[in-house]
């Protein structure tokens, strides 16, 4: 069959089959050090904090992490989580899949938590299992998933670990009353000891075990700092087995040696901090301005977060000391990130996450290891969905066809090439509640109803946008080039939209963003990485700028379906989420021959 006689349908299908090969050929060579021998697989240490911010300047208060990681590695400044909530984000990180493909969208059943992870068949299909298959010894200590409890820790045991020592609910976030569960043993309470000190001891113990082995190792370390301290009084009740809705969220508790630090620190007073005028969309726009007492308390909350992170700073230094003592540092990659970000006061929000603002989704990612440029910042777009492919490729294992992300380049050459060819988008999605942490919350209560939305974050050459559609079909658009604090929703009725955006009529630019989100909100595999290719199979549209060409106007403005919801749901219920991308019939088809598409 000749390409010139392919129908649009067959051309689209063939192009998707060829895409993974061409994409891999384009990026494989420079991703990792060229001289790394297959017989010397690197060790991997992965440190995953809980709720750590990038935009509230927490890294500025961590001198040991700066010296050990930032100064000697690469900080990826445009790294994003795809769901700003603990459990969905962690499941996506370890599986390399968007939450709409794992269907783990909450912290507790029925839509999330460890039981949902198991019921979705993911306990046999995530990173530690794959690393063991690649010849690695695997260890893990700290928080794995929410709703992993003192009751279900062997129902079943999390697969894929040679050694594990997990924090368990309902004591996961109790800094002075933690419970850990090691391997197949019964849970042990550490009441009266600070959980970060307990975790550090366990992490170093596993590092000792790994160093004595004769195989490469993976060590996951997941401290709860700087998450709120949480007490769950109703845990185990038949009506509320997770205790999510009546849990008490208070400021995190630092180790006693750190409780006096940073007495004058305050939440950065950015333009979007407790603004005079409302901002955002949906329920966010209805929030009252915070009182002076409220702001003072939130500053205290902020200081407690910084103080609690000092134990993480010490943990990282201890890890490096051990690696140096064993002579392992030169062949070990260290990854440092968080499950999601955090806001305190921005857009009048009380302490928490669960939103699509930069504070919640743009988070730290620092990588140090063989061939990784030192003292470098990288501005390419990376996401949590990219981390499993990255680690699996480091392990020398073939990538999975169902990954929704692609490996992150770790060399100077790879970063330079990625700046030209890498995707520029992040798929952001959320279902269910928003929670207010701390002592202040609106009259409606600490848990706020439905917070379901889909969004896309685009960071390209000369533009930076966030576009979202909420389940009540309210729309949101920020031009972060001119409005980096996301204070002016260009699609809100109270705002005056500009006549043009990117040099074209405003509605034309919005139509392209909506079509991009339309593909991403239900994408799978390579379509999540290269969504424009799904809309333009000829390959002549690679980014938002290309899609703005005038010849596509009718397709985007008149023919393409729009993102919408049929109703609000607390989890991923497909028939509530409006029209879905189906590929065939929704691609740009200018003619019936391949040459007509180019």
Model description:
With 598 residues, the chain is α/β, with parallel strands linked by helices. It folds into two domains: 3-21 and 452-597, no CATH class; 46-259 and 303-425, Alkaline Phosphatase, subunit A, CATH 3.40.720. It is built from 17 helices and 20 strands. A ten-stranded mixed sheet has the order 6-5-4-3-7-1-10-11-2-12, sandwiched between helices. The protein has a four-stranded antiparallel sheet with strand order 13-16-17-18, with helices on one face. Strands 8-9 form a two-stranded antiparallel ribbon. α1 (8-31) runs antiparallel to α11. Mean pLDDT is 91; it is low at 1-30, 34-38, 237-241 and 591-598.
Features:
about 600 residues, Alkaline Phosphatase, subunit A, 2 domains, globular
